[in-house]
Amino acid sequence: VQLQASGGGLVQAGGSLRLSCVATGNFFTSGTTNWFRQAPGKQREFVARITTASRSVYADSVKGRFSISRDSARKTVYLQMDSLTPEDTAVYYCNLQVLGGDYWGQGTLVTVSS
Fold it and tell me: What single string gives the DSSP state of each residue in 22-56?
């Protein structure tokens, strides 16, 4: 399984971005996909999760601003990020958890200017 994250960039505070995580391989439909982020000098932290049944969970810091969704036919998970703040600046990673495996993408940088 390989994961390719994209969609990061530079945006002003209050703006929006949509991240995409495209999976190759056969396990996408049987796994839970997560987004994590790591800000400079900080530990990686959980952002959002979506299960195979499309149930979603969010970190408190992004609840109400971020929305995770999946398109199983395209093997893609999206993270819609609205009302961005400078505190959202980080490298965002997608992660696929399946039975017996844990896969990571390469990360996409999101920079929010004030």
Answer: EEESS-GGGSEEEEEEE-TTS--EEEEEE-TT--E
